[in-house]
Write a structure and sequence with these properties.
It is built from 16 helices and 26 strands. By secondary structure, the chain is of the alpha/beta class. A hairpin with a 5-residue loop joins β22 and β23. α14 runs parallel beside α15. The chain binds flavin-adenine dinucleotide. The site of flavin-adenine dinucleotide has 37 residues, from α10, α14 and α16.
Length: 562
C-alpha cells in the first residue's frame, strides 16, 4: 500500500511586531482572509522571526510576504527585512509604521526595496490591509511564487539569438528555465530531443516538445499568447502595446468599441523594462513596469479587447473611411479608426561592437552588450563590474537596480554631470549607493572581446585620453527615436519622425476636412496618436496613459461623424 501523498505546504505570510496586542491583531486579520491558502506565522521580535525563517528555509517552506513593525527594540523592522531578504529574496516586504515614522519608511524603500509601508491602525482591513496584501500576493505569485518553470531554453552563452529568445520570453512574462548547452543538463536534454548543439537555441515547451530556433510568433503561439486577430474588421485598431496603447485598448473596449491591439514584441513597451516606476500616480511605493503592464493587459482582456503580439504593423492604407493595417509577416486587418501608440526605440551607440548592422560576427549585442534593461541577464551580474551608458532616468534606474547584485556599477555619462538629464530623486539615490561610480565627461567608443564582451575602451571627453577596462556586461540607454517610416506620407511628422497632431499640425500638413482636427488626431482623419511617438509628448508613463485614454474620447467623436 502506498502512503497518501502529503498535501502541498501552504506558502507563509510572516508578521513580526513586538507589541503582543498589535501582533495578535495583524495575525488575526490576515488569518481571516488568507488562512485558506496561506499559513500565517507570527513572531514578537526580529531575532526570533529570523530563527523561525531559518527553520522554514531548511524545511523547504516558501514565504510570500513579510509584515514587519518599524519600531522594535531588539532589531528594527528595516534591519529584520534586510536580513530576511537574504533568506527569502522573492518575498514581498511591508513595513508597519506610525504616522510619525513615515519618513523612515520612505527611506526604507531604497534600503530594503520595500514594497509598501502600511500606516497603523489599518482599520477597516477590507480597505487598508487586504488590497495591499492582495496586490503583493499577486505579484509574488507572478514571480517568486512560481515553481521551477517547465519551459526550457537550451542555448549558447554567447549567442545573439539565444539572448533574443530569453528576452522575448522575459518581456512577455513567460517563465522559463535557462540551460547552457555545454552543461551536463543541456547535453542530456539535447540528446533526449535527438539534437546536438548545432541546432541552438532549442526551446522545450511545457509539454516536452522541442522547438529548434523558433521565431517569436511561433513561440508566442505555442506558449499561449494570441498572434492572430479574431476578426477581420474592428471599430478601433491600436498599434503598439506600451502604456499608451494599453490605455487606449482598455478605454476603447470598455466603452463598447470592437478593439484590437497590435504589438510587435511584448505588451508593456518601454515601461515594461522599468525596474521601478516611482512617479506614476497612485503608487506611492513605486511599481515595477512589467507588473503595471501585466495588470493593464489583463484589464484590456477583461473588457474583451483583442490583444495580438509578435505582429509588427508595416503599412497603413487608407481606403475611404476604412483603414487597412498590414503585418510584416503577411496578413492584414481593416478598421474604422486607429490609435498610433508605437512609442520610441533605443538609439544605437556609435561604438564598435555595439551596432546591430555589424552582423553576428563583430556585433556583441546579446553577447554582453544590451540595449535597455535586459532584466533577463541583469539577474546574472552578481559580483561583477558592469557598465551602464546614459545620463537620463532610465540609465539611473538601471544602475540602481543592477547595484543590488553587481560588485560595482559604472555609470558612463557623456555630459559634465547628471543634473541636466536625471531626476533629482534618482541622483540622490545614486549618490547614496556606494557601489555606483559615475564617470562624467566619458564615452564608450569600443566594445570588444572573443565569443562575448570582454573589454571596453573609454574615452575622456576633456583630455581625449582612452582607457581599456575589463567588462562583460554593458547596458546602453542613450535616448530613443520613433520608428514611423512605415507610415504613409499623408500622416504628417516632424523632422525627427514624431507624429504631429491636433493644434500642432501645420497649415501645409494636408488636413482634408473643413472641421479642425481633434486633439491627438493626425493629418489623416480617424487616425490618432498617443504617447511617446507624438511630437512634443512628455515621455512619461502617466502622459502616455492619459493620451491613450483621451484619444478614445475623440475616436468616439470621429466615429459619430462618419
Ligand atoms: C528603462 C526605462 C525606465 C523608465 N522609467 C520611467 C519612469 O520611472 N516613469 C515614467 O513616467 N516613465 C518612465 N519611462 C518612460 C516610459 O516608459 C515611456 O514614456 C512610456 O513607456 C511610453 O509609452 P508608449 O505607450 O507611448 O510607448 P512605448 O512604451 O515605447 O511602447 C510602444 C510599443 O509599441 C510597439 N511597436 C512599435 N512599433 C510597432 C509596430 N510597427 N507594430 C506593432 N507594435 C509596434 C513596441 O514594441 C512597444 O511595445 C522609462 C523608460 C525606460 C526605457
Amino acid at each position: 500500500m502506498t502512503a497518501p501523498a502529503a498535501a502541498p505546504r501552504k506558502p507563509i505570510i510572516l508578521t513580526v511586531d513586538d507589541d503582543p496586542a498589535v501582533s495578535r491583531a495583524v495575525a488575526r486579520d490576515l488569518r481571516r482572509k488568507y488562512a485558506e491558502t496561506y499559513r500565517i506565522v507570527r513572531a514578537e521580535n526580529g531575532p526570533d522571526a529570523l530563527d523561525t525563517l531559518r527553520e522554514l528555509k531548511l524545511r523547504g517552506d516558501t514565504v510570500a510576504v513579510f509584515v514587519a513593525d518599524y519600531r522594535m527594540p531588539a532589531m528594527s523592522g528595516i534591519e529584520f527585512l534586510e536580513a530576511a531578504m537574504d533568506l527569502y529574496p522573492m518575498a514581498r516586504r511591508v513595513l508597519l509604521t506610525a504616522y510619525a515614522d513615515t519618513h523612515a519608511a520612505i527611506d526604507a524603500i531604497n534600503v530594503v526595496d520595500l514594497d509598501h509601508y502600511l500606516l497603523k491602525p489599518w482599520d477597516p482591513p477590507e480597505e487598508k490591509l487586504y488590497p495591499v496584501i492582495d496586490a503583493l500576493l499577486e505579484a509574488w505569485n507572478a514571480d517568486g511564487g512560481h515553481p521551477m518553470p517547465n519551459t526550457k531554453i537550451i542555448g549558447h552563452r554567447y549567442s545573439r539569438r539565444s539572448s533574443e529568445v530569453r528576452e522575448f520570453l522575459a518581456s512577455n512574462r513567460l517563465p522559463y528555465h535557462w540551460i547552457f548547452a555545454d552543461d551536463d543538463e543541456g547535453h542530456r536534454l539535447l540528446e533526449a530531443a535527438g539534437l546536438d548543439d548545432r541546432a541552438l537555441p532549442v526551446v522545450i515547451t511545457e509539454t516536452g516538445e522541442p522547438l529548434v530556433d523558433p521565431s517569436n510568433t511561433e513561440l508566442a503561439g505555442r506558449l499561449g499568447l494570441s498572434t492572430e486577430p479574431r476578426a477581420d474588421f474592428y471599430d478601433l485598431a491600436v498599434i503598439g502595446g506600451g502604456p499608451g496603447g494599453l490605455a487606449a485598448a482598455v478605454y476603447g473596449a470598455s466603452e463598447g468599441l470592437r478593439t484590437v491591439l497590435i504589438e510587435a514584441v511584448a505588451t508593456g513597451g518601454q515601461a515594461g523594462q522599468s525596474s521601478r516606476i516611482e512617479n506614476y500616480l497612485g503608487f506611492p511605493d513605486g511599481v515595477r513596469g512589467d507588473q503595471l503592464a501585466d495588470r493593464a493587459r489583463r484589464q484590456a482582456e477583461k473588457f474583451s479587447a483583442d490583444l495580438i503580439t509578435t505582429r509588427e504593423a508595416v503599412a497603413l492604407e487608407l481606403h475611404g473611411n476604412t483603414r487597412t493595417i498590414r503585418f510584416a509577416d503577411g496578413g492584414s486587418l481593416d478598421c474604422r479608426s486607429v490609435v498610433l501608440a508605437t512609442g520610441v526605440s533605443y538609439r544605437e551607440l556609435d561604438a564598435d561592437g555595439c551596432h546591430s548592422r555589424d552582423g553576428d560576427d563583430s556585433s556583441l549585442i546579446g553577447r554582453g552588450v544590451y540595449y535597455g534593461a535586459a532584466t533577463y541577464v541583469a539577474a546574472e551580474c552578481e559580483d561583477q563590474e558592469v557598465y551602464v551608458v546614459g545620463g537620463a532616468n532610465s540609465a539611473g534606474q538601471a544602475a540602481m537596480n543592477l547595484a543590488r547584485k553587481a560588485a560595482r556599477v559604472h555609470l558612463v555619462v557623456r555630459g559634465p554631470s547628471l543634473e541636466a538629464s536625471m531626476s533629482y530623486y534618482l541622483i540622490q539615490q545614486i549618490e547614496a549607493t556606494p557601489n555606483i561610480e559615475v564617470h562624467t565627461n566619458t564615452r564608450v567608443c569600443r566594445a570588444f572581446g572573443g565569443e562575448g564582451l570582454e573589454n571596453l575602451t573609454l574615452i575622456d571627453g576633456t583630455t581625449n585620453q582612452t582607457t581599456d577596462v575589463g567588462c562583460t556586461q554593458l547596458f546602453i540607454f542613450i535616448g530613443a527615436q520613433p520608428r514611423t517610416d512605415w507610415l504613409p506620407d499623408a500622416i504628417a511628422r516632424d523632422d525627427r519622425g514624431f507624429v504631429l497632431s491636433g493644434p500642432d499640425l501645420k497649415p501645409d500638413s494636408g488636413w482634408p476636412l473643413d472641421r479642425p482636427p481633434h486633439h491627438l488626431e493626425t493629418s489623416v482623419p480617424g487616425v490618432f496618436v498617443a504617447g511617446d511617438v507624438r511630437a512634443e509628448s512628455a515621455k512619461r508613463v502617466a502622459a502616455a496613459v492619459g493620451e491613450g485614454s483621451m484619444a478614445v474620447m475623440f475616436v468616439h467623436r470621429y466615429l459619430a461623424e462618419t
